[in-house]
Amino acid sequence: MISLQFLPRVLFLLILSLSVTGLVAQTTITGKIADTDGKAVSGATVTVKGQKAGVAADTEGAFSISVPPGTKFLVISSVGYAEQEVDIAGKSVVSVVLTPESKTYSDVVVVGYGTVRRRDATAAIASIGSKDFSSGIIVNPMQQIQGKIAGLSITQAGGDPNSNPIIRLRGQTSLSGGQTPLIVLDGIPLDDPNQISSIPPGDITSYDILKDVSATAIYGSRGANGVIIINTKKGTAGRTRVEYNGFAAMDRLAKGFDLANADEWRQANQLAGVDPATIASYDKGANTDWADAITRTAFTHSHNVAVSGGTGGFNYRASVSYMDQEGIVINTGKEQFAVRFNAQQKAMKNKLDLQVSVFNNHNNRNYADYAIFAYINTTPPVYPVYNPDGSYYAYNGFEQQNPVARQELQTNKAVDDLTQILGRADYEIIRGLKLGVLGSISRYNIQTQNFTPTLPGVGNITTGSQANSNLNSKKGDVHLNYNKDFGRHNIAATAVYEYNEFNNQRFNAGGQDFLVPDLGVDYLQGGNPALNTIGSYRDQFKIISFLGRVAYNYDQRYYATVSLRRDGSSKFGENNRWGTFPAVSAAWRISGESFMQGIYWLSDLKLSAGYGVVGNQDAISPYNTLLTLGGSTRYLDLGNPSYLFPQSYTPNQNANPDLKWEERHGTNIGLSFGLFDNRFTGNINWYNDKTKNLLFNYQVPIPPFFYNTILANVGELTNKGVEIQLNADVTRGKKFQWNIGGQITFSKTRITSLSGSFAGLDIKTDDVRMGQATGRGYANNYITFLKVGYAPYVFYLPEFAGVSKEIDPTTQSNQQYYDENGELTYSVTAARKKYIDPSQNFNYGINSTMAYGKWGFNFFLRGVSGQKVFNNYQNITSNLSRLPGNNITKQGLTNGIRGSQTASDYWLEDAGFMRLDNATLSYTFGEVGAFESLRLYLTGTNLFVITNYTGQDPEIANGNSVQSYIDANVSGLGFYPRSRTLTLGINLSLK
């Protein structure tokens, strides 16, 4: 027995022996960690696989760790990089290269409330990264991907720097609801899709586009028109990086308005038989090109500076952007200033992930008065712009004013600010199970100012107004994500509770007949008190949602995804407030089967199919279910017996408590493939969508209703199409690389029903009058309709009937079209009218990228086939009868058209086109002096357009309104001309 006095010595020897044993048994592994550029990743965490404790790499990326005997793997992780397992069996020194963690273009796509590897996606999802963005004068992020994604149509009609692109994904989905896809910025949906213009393009790294209903159903009521997910750039741990991207650009008018000059104007008056004395009374001896007078060579410059970095479990990125864009129309343009900061911190042994993002954008805008585009057509070229003393030449007639004076003397501007704050926290409860919360605040303020002084020769009274609008929201969710591998099985599950609150508010005030016009909008009370106006508005609504999704795959061959979302919107009545939106999709990777292994040239082949339901509430304002009243200046006054009841208030909206969600039911079948080591890749998708319970305003009788229209769920429409996206590496040489890619989309939208019942009233109709041709003599001349069996806004026009008598070809060209009086001859009877579908047959885009050494060249073509536009511009301006006092197009000098304006299919033109959208030549210097990388590029934009359309530009805002296919450039419906641009840009990063 050991004496107690020797016990301490025994314990000391035992502990010492165990320690020595441990030291002898353990092995020390050393190594260095770098990124794909060969730069050290400091602060990276190194652990033994299966253990929590570890060490951190030093500033040079070096580490040293002791591992137990038999250890086979180390786990290396760092914020911003993909986690990597390193085999250390039989090694004492290792070298590790970490690749950036990407939720974007390379291998992972964002699918809403989570991510999925691209090859494992079961729905129709397209992605595009920064290397494939369009270059040049990119002032709206959507221009980066215009024409490059099958099924996604982005139309920037005209060249107005303050206009917003028209975005459509897989055609038209509603008759009166919003058509624009939901835009999600770093996980937070934008309250208004037009806010995309406030996002600096230089901050964006990739887009993920959810196209089919099975993919968008996870967003429920907000995903009815598809979803575009925008991912901005993030920082990575390591040394501080400084990047600069900037360009300077010059814009010129791409195409004039084809108007007659002074001599041609005089000839046209003589041809029209105008009395010489009348011609002389208009002739002021000038030769003014009014299109040239209101346009200019415009300059744009843009700058983006970003600083990023981090250490250990922390990374950040901060950026500042500035852009000043002059419009090619005088006194128009946009100035933009934006700041963005985002950061990520990992804590509690990387179990806790904290993220924060702050963004603010400020825009100063000068708008165009679109009336000036009418005036350049109605003003003779023999009028001068200025008097000899430099003052504006003054004149005023029917639809006539000096457009230069009007545009330069008016105040027509706005200031808008968008602020977004995001916070997110995710905690890993157990391996594979994470619980998180997300919250965001969005504030969007718009202040507009408009002041019109007394214009030269017009004699108008002065008018001024200001308005202030606020679109604010609060959003938040609690989410639970689970991802677990069980051998060849993988299960990923997501559950979310989401809350959205929207508050919109507007205030406006106006005055007229100001005593001191020089004070402008800053002294509205200086106007005539009897003419002052004031107004205000506010609405509020909420959306509360519950959603769940489960994705399963076996052996990366068989995939299935099921989701269910339940949305409640306060816009609807109590009985129809909640909507349920399910979705299911599946995929089979055929190339993973054993029977495919012998086909060496097949790299990948996957078949997928999906079905889902989404809702649409955009057509409904927060109070559309209620009977509302509107009034004039009368108000309740209990002290005045005549005003005890607001008798001037009358109903301006019928109640319809039965309003319910529009529902879009969609089916998609897709095939994706890769051939010859993925040198040739592509995907083909076929879709068939049906929108039920269409929301539309219908005419109703008074009584029993209080107002003559009512919003109701009546009718259905279908959308069917095929999308093909292809990409080929023509050559992958070390010196020369050439890639060609493209897409083509075929789509058809048809109205299948405009009938239904509500509130005891049956609506049975097969057509609804919509758009009118505009201009003098066109009252109630409807030419577009909603017609069952046809595309929305189908034309219904008299056929051109041909000639009734030959005409002398020396005075009238195209004589086969006119009668003896130079009048177009038509049959306007119903028997000679026909429906004509204006929508496109298909659209396409073709991209070619070549690199030789440090040189690069790429170009992008896009186009549309089959669309038709009613050329109202030529219809009105090429008519000799509109002289004197008006100008005429050069076509009007020879076509011999006289008499009243007549809407017929003669003016319905093929507006298909192919546009060389941009071409870029670049040179990359690589590492030069203080620069880690340096790239210069020269880009031409809108270099040419091939089209049969005789109007100013064939690219119109199709599908945007009932005027979509009517090119109306007069009577106040002008067209801001498109420009041709040359851009010089630079991309650099400092060492």
UniProtKB/TrEMBL annotation:
PROSITE patterns: TONB_DEPENDENT_REC_3. It is found in: Cell outer membrane. It is a multi-pass membrane protein. Keywords: Cell outer membrane, Membrane, Receptor, TonB box, Transmembrane, Transmembrane beta strand, Transport. The keyword Transmembrane applies. Its main location: membrane. InterPro entries: Beta-barrel_TonB, Beta-barrel_TonB_sf, CarboxyPept-like_regulatory, Plug_dom, Plug_dom_sf, TonB-dep_OMP_SusC/RagA, TonB-dep_OMP_SusC/RagA_CS, TonB-dep_rcpt-like. Residues 361-943 form the TonB-dependent receptor-like beta-barrel domain. Residues 118-227 form the TonB-dependent receptor plug domain. GO terms for cellular component: cell outer membrane. Pfam families: CarbopepD_reg_2, Plug, TonB_dep_Rec_b-barrel. Belongs to the TonB-dependent receptor family. This is Putative TonB-dependent receptor. It comes from Flavihumibacter petaseus NBRC 106054. The lineage of its organism: Bacteria, Pseudomonadati, Bacteroidota, Chitinophagia, Chitinophagales.
